[in-house]
Amino acid sequence: MGQIKVKIRFDYVSKAPSGKFFGNKNIEQLADNIRQQKVAKMRNVPIQGVRIEDIDMSQDIYTLVDDVTGKSAAYAPVVITIGADKIDEVIKFIIMDEFRTIEILEPTESLLTKGDLERLLFVVSQELSECRDQLRRQLDNGR
After folding, report:
1. How many CB atoms lie within 10 A of CB 127?
2. Domain-wise residue ranges, the chain
3. Calculated CA dihedral for residues 5, 41, 21, 63, nearest 10 degrees
4. Per-residue pLDDT for 132 more than 60?
């Protein structure tokens, strides 16, 4: 499989702080700050085989209330259009917690060879393993 072009939506979340540590900033401002930081990082940190083609932060920040906890959370959406040399390079983006949707722009049709499918599944396995390891480290540090 050759080049791929996708639009990926991320929603960066800010939950209502429990104390006054954050001062007068509301959760929508915090969500926007998080979005700005994450987008700046994506712009400035190159990823081999991936090109950031467009970043759209024009969607409004929205707030939801958790039915169980009753706490508010603000979500700052961003849509990023990326070009990648191979489909497995897109995996890094779709395993992020903030990932919401993906739209494949190019190619309109694709045929995966046996080798392409094996490589894709291998990369998914590696990424999931890294996520599990990171969670284990975070849990171990919390003890």
Report:
1. 15
2. 4-108
3. -20
4. yes
